[in-house]
Every structure is written in C-alpha cells, then in structure tokens.
Specification:
- By secondary structure, this protein is of the alpha/beta class.
- The protein folds into two domains: about 5-135 and about 270-330, Periplasmic binding protein-like II (D-Maltodextrin-Binding Protein, domain 2); about 135-270, Periplasmic binding protein-like II (D-Maltodextrin-Binding Protein, domain 2, 3-Layer(aba) Sandwich), CATH 3.40.190.10.
- About 35% of the residues lie in helices and about 20% in strands.
- The protein contains eleven helices and ten strands.
- InterPro entries: TRAP_TAXI.
- This is TAXI family TRAP transporter solute-binding subunit.
Length: about 325
Amino acid sequence: MNTKTVTRLAAAAVGAATLLGATFAVGQQMAFFRIGTGGTAGTYFPIGGLLSNAVSNPPGSRACADGGACGVPGLIATAVATNGSVANINGIESGALESGLTQSDVAYWAYSGTGVFEGKAKIENLRGIANLYPETIHLVARKGAGIKSPADLKGKRVSLDEPGSGTLIDARIVLSAYGLTEKDVKAEYLKPNASGDRLRDGALDAFFFVGGYPTGAISELATSSGIELVPIAGPEAKKILADFKFFGPDKVPAGTYKDVEGVETVSVNALWVTSAKQPEDLVYGVTKALWNDNSRKLMDAGHAKGKQIRKETALDGIGIPLHPGAEKFYREVGLLK
C-alpha cells in the first residue's frame, strides 16, 4: 500500500467518522479506527497494516466461520502513515487518531509528563492495548566511514530522524551516553528512506533507526550499497540501561542484513496505545480480535516481527495503564488476576 493510498484511506475514514459521530455501540453498522504508524519505510507501517487487517470486519464481510474477516463486526481500521511515536500520541490526545503505535519510553514520558514531555501537560488519557515486540536501536553507518562506536560520530553527518519520532529521542540518549550532543555532530532530521538515499549517495555518514528488524529501508541499503551496524555496547550501554528502565539489552544477529555482522545494542518495546475516551466495548473487541487464531496467521505470515507479537508477552513493559476494554479481555483469558 503506497502513501497516497494510505492518505486517501485516512481521509475517507476521517470524513466518515465525522459523519457518524466517531462512536461505537452495539448495533452500529460502521465505525472507523485509525492506527497511527510511522514512515512507510519503517516497521510501524507494515505492522499497522497487519493490525488493521486483523481487527477490521466491514459491513457485508463474510463471517469468520466462513473464512471471512474475524475482526470487530462493522469496524474499518486503517493504518495511517505519520512521523512516529510522539506524533501518534499527540494525534490520540487531539482526537485525530483513535490509536497508534509508540515506543514504550515515549508512552511513559507522555503519561507521566517527564523526559521529553517535561514541562508539558501530562497525557493522562493515554491507555495501553498491548505490547507488541521489541524495537531495536539501529545505528547504521556508511561502509568505510570509520564509525566503530557512537563516540566516532563526532563531526560526522548523522541523521537523527524526524521531529516527533521516538528515534530522535533515543538518538539523543545514545549520544549523551557517549559524551556527545547534537551540536557535536552535523545533524540532519530525515525519515529512514531519505536517510538511506543520502547514505547511499555519500552525503550522509550514519543514521539512527529504532524499529523491529529486519526493516525494509536498511535491508535494501545493505543489498544495494553495503552498510555497517555500529554496536551500542560496553559501559555506556550499561549506563543507558541503568538510567532508563524501559530499555533492555538486545542484539541484531549476523545475517539479519546482507553481509552485515551481528552487533550488541539496546531496545525498547513497541506498544499499541489508545485513549481512555475510546468506548470500552470497542477496545475490548479490538483486543479480542488481535489475539484470535486468524490474526495469529496474519502476524506469522505478514512480517518478521509479526511472529514476536504474542499474547503471552502482551502485558510486558507497557508502563501506562491498560484501557478498561483491553483489561477486561486480559482478565477473561487469565493474563490478569
């Protein structure tokens, strides 16, 4: 699905939701549920597409028992391309989105009014639907750029991702752990696909990306021009883990990207979040649809990270309250007591 198609779908969803009052109740024929994702070259966008397929069940669809949609009856969910975590949370708060994907660190900061949200109003209506999968911090370097550690980024041309992205926040944390700030690098603020293009052309030395591996933009870059992954390890990484409890140790295995050695790094969790203002019945239905057998098949076949989206880890590392609808489902299946 290209960006124009997503934009048309989103526009249609917004218009129809406005006409219908954007509410959900038993007996309503149609409801819309927008899922804010990220750039089209990242991991959030295809995962958002899988989620929308899993929970959608438009009017007139064949019944699940007949091989049709197994989602919420009458629901049309759409994956909307955005600038990522921060933008999705702001969209949920403003009502421009019904839900979105976000990093666990960004969700915690938004809800508590700390970190990058310090001095701003707490987004107290932010609620969790599920933890999805680990999001790995990639530091991608141009082959031969001489970057063996984040400390080597000093004076280099580095993309930190767009304003509003969780990647930008985490890139700043990594730089700080290695004694650097944005002023110590020649910082640019580009989406992953634009960063890849500039790296390939020799106009960029490195870029940060936070997302599930493998991601399309990095895979294509590794195949077409060759890259190196820079480890985020050693005492600096240990300090990150000690200072920020929502990070965990991680590793990108060798061969994940063509001819690229494995590296140690750190990761956060990818969460699916919504607003406390969303109806309990709706979010209960969405959560239940996420974890049915049909959705399991979609996740396993749809993306490498889809296999890591497991009901058994749905409550790991969320860090914000669950939506009552999601909480109801997890209690029913015994994941909450």
